[in-house]
Amino acid sequence: MAADEITPSILSTLTNALPDSDPEETGEWVESFDALVREQGTGRAQYVMRSLLQRAGAQSVGVPMVTTTDYVNTIPADQEPAYPGNEEYERAYRRAMRWNAAIMVHRAQRADIGVGGHISTYAGAATLYEVGFNHFFRGKDHAGGGDQVFFQGHASPGMYARAFMEGRLSEEDLDGFRQEKSKEGHALSSYPHPRLMPHFWEFPTVSMGIGPMNAIYQAQSNRYLHNRGLKDTSDQQVWAFLGDGEMDEPESRGLLQLAANEGLDNLNFVINCNLQRLDGPVRGNGKIMQELEAFFRGAGWNVIKVVWGREWDELLAKDTDGSLVNIMNDTVDGDYQTFKAENGGFIREHFFGRSAQTKDLVADLTDDQIWNLKRGGHDYRKVYAAYKAATEFKGKPTVILAKTVKGYGLGAHFEARNATHQMKKLTMEDLKAFRDLLRIPISDEVLEKDLYRPPYYHPGMDAPEIQYMMGRRAVLGGSVPERRPEHVEVKLPDAKSYEVAKKGSGKQKAATTMAFVRMLKDLLRDKDFGKRLVPVVPDESRTFGMDAFFPTAKIYNPKGQNYLSVDRELVLAYKESPLGQLIHPGINEAGAVAAFTAAGTAYATHGQPLVPIYVFYSMFGFQRTGDSFWAAADQMTRGFIIGATAGRTTLTGEGLQHADGHSPLLASTNPAVVTYDPAYGYEIAHIFRDGLERMYGPDSADRNLMYYLTVYNEPIHQPAEPENLDVQGVLKGIYKVSAAENPDGKPRAQVLASGVSVPWALDAQRILAEDWGVAADVWSVTSWNELRRDGLAAEEHEFLNPGAEARVPFVTSQLAGAEGPVVAVSDYMKAVPDQIRQFIPNEYAVLGADGFGFSDTRQAARRFFKNDTHSVVVKTLQMLAREGKVNAQAPAQAIEKYRLLDVNAGTTGGAGGDA
């Protein structure tokens, strides 16, 4: 390929657009600069260049921002620190780990199992990890508290291979890879899954893009804990290992500004730039490392590129006219990938052969020597220099862009091939070549016994290299990864903290959102427990009435508030502080869930329980960030998720994209989420207290739960907690909120309602009695979802225990003896209350808000969807008419009487109104 056929890549091109009026003088300046570098080193040259740039700015000389640098290592060879480790020992067990990682996946591919796995990612990234394990990653027993490491999901076999070398896992464990039930007790999860391996993995990362996002907020959470005086995290680093293809995910890049804005120099991204996605090159016609350098630098990060191994240093030193660097700059990633899939002769012709100067540079090298010119991510000295520089850098987060080869060392069938990500099997030829490359002492005879059962290799715990390895981990504070769920004792709030929610609102009206916020305000004041609450609100605090927290709890900002607030004279003035308790991620639901996850797992990450309370616009919860909530469940997050302004018809003018009619269904797909749709403040108080008890109380069987409460912005008269409240019914999902008066001799019915629809049901109860002589009981269904789970569990028990006494679902037992048809209503789509149909002993019908939302009054919207008070009345009459309990003409008469087909005749609910 000719040089003029190369697709232009991202280059600095600082001089291309300007004429050189005096080339001779330009040459003298360049020669002078080269002499400065040669005689005084790159450090001095850097200072002089910065001084000149500063002076140019002062003289109004336009100097472009340099977002990318040449395609060479950021750290010059003369500035590399000495490597502190025993290179011989580290190479020895690194070879064994690479072998065992590949063999573990290969063995899992035998015909009777075939569970898959990934070989190539760890093969290419082994050096990146091992330099960290040997010299940087601190374990839980380190005096500084240990680091948090987000491992790249597809590299998990390498972490298992190291754990095997450390004696943490056995050969039987390795053979349980991806067989979590059939090999229970000796099973390894496919990827980093804390829920599946709760004492091994800390962070789930294989859902692409969530790892980077969660790592950023983990670093912020560390600082949050430190600034609020809950734990000294000043010596803890967060490491996130990522793929270059993964960086195309919007979540991977979309939150970089937070890390830069808050100066999170405790955060290090290591991006494994093997130039390949799952199917092919990341940027075949471009250069992903250059693109990422520009992006991160522009976002305010410190960028370190590790492009070339030490074998290139001498060639670059001889490149006095920049010919080699120019070719490095111009060569696109698709070609770099092809070069590593070919041979040294091919590289000599198609890379170095692009200019006479570069061809002469390698004239004395053999093809094998050219082939062995390594990429920087495979050179532990270069990687060590980058890691050391990153951990010592202050004021900014650091990203390390390390160039590697996917499938490195696995042979010609794997290295840099487009299909390498999906390749899981080694041929006998591959096995032998891989063994020879790694110098594993296993004979041909042993390998040939069974292609799919080649042996693992361990030199023995007494081997000097293993003793060295264990010694390094001891110095660094123990094994990584490790999860420790033990935490300091938590004193939960006493009963008085919930009193405000149980008193009701008296003569005033208050939405359930406000009832919740008032209760939360009292909980924050609890002298023992209040400090552990972490409200998280994405720029809607005033919508939810949470601006009352600003002057007291304050908004967390590590830089404080260095401006004169425009509302400083107001009682509810906006107030930022390093001691602030409220996390305010801005218009950023994804970041809010990441903050929620970091806080909700602090009990395990730091041994300091925090209880995050994420309050959001209901529609923007599970629909927008469901994947993140799934990762939060995998990480065993504990906390409260509050879907405020809930329901499809309560937001009046906001319209379609704000009208939530389905989030309980989305939440039902997450096994860790306990969903409630409370109607009254006293219900919220009992549910919240129960959640805390289940998360941190002494008698909980399953603590790793997220409580999801939907609350509304429609003001109603909040009743005080009734005497003899059925608290068990509130917590398990249904209780009778109002029995019919004087039911004797009247047609009977049951109305089930949840959330904002309970007052509609109570009004329907009154109308049925006054206008039609029907006695209806009203039930508050605090959780359709939990009633369904309980019912399904009862069915499962009966299925697996034939002959045993069947367990009755809770909703069935609650409605035992209840007479008449059952009408269920909510402000969600019909599928929400329809979840419990099979467990209702009576005839059952549901009303709801199916279809898209729209802008209108609450009354009109409810009349349109036919889930309002009069719709409950008509549906009840229809069902009773079928049974012959009321006049057959009653339903039609009711439709006409209440003008049910006229959206302008609706009367259910108030107009507009604040929360």
UniProtKB/TrEMBL annotation:
Pfam families: PDH_E1_M, Transketolase_C_1, Transketolase_N. It comes from the Bacteria. It catalyses: N(6)-[(R)-lipoyl]-L-lysyl-[protein] + pyruvate + H(+) = N(6)-[(R)-S(8)-acetyldihydrolipoyl]-L-lysyl-[protein] + CO2. GO terms for molecular function: pyruvate dehydrogenase (acetyl-transferring) activity. Its cofactor is thiamine diphosphate. Keywords: Oxidoreductase, Pyruvate, Thiamine pyrophosphate. Residues 733-866 form the Transketolase-like C-terminal domain. InterPro entries: PDC_E1_N, PDH/Transketolase, PDH_E1, PDH_E1_M, THDP-binding, Transketo_C/PFOR_II, Transketolase-like_C_2, Transketolase_N. It is an enzyme of class 1 (oxidoreductase). Residues 494-718 form the Pyruvate dehydrogenase E1 component middle domain. The keyword Oxidoreductase applies. Its EC number is 1.2.4.1. Residues 140-311 form the Transketolase N-terminal domain. Component of the pyruvate dehydrogenase (PDH) complex, that catalyzes the overall conversion of pyruvate to acetyl-CoA and CO(2). PANTHER family: PYRUVATE DEHYDROGENASE E1 COMPONENT (PTHR43825:SF3). This is Pyruvate dehydrogenase E1 component. It comes from Arthrobacter horti. The lineage of its organism: Bacteria, Bacillati, Actinomycetota, Actinomycetes, Micrococcales.
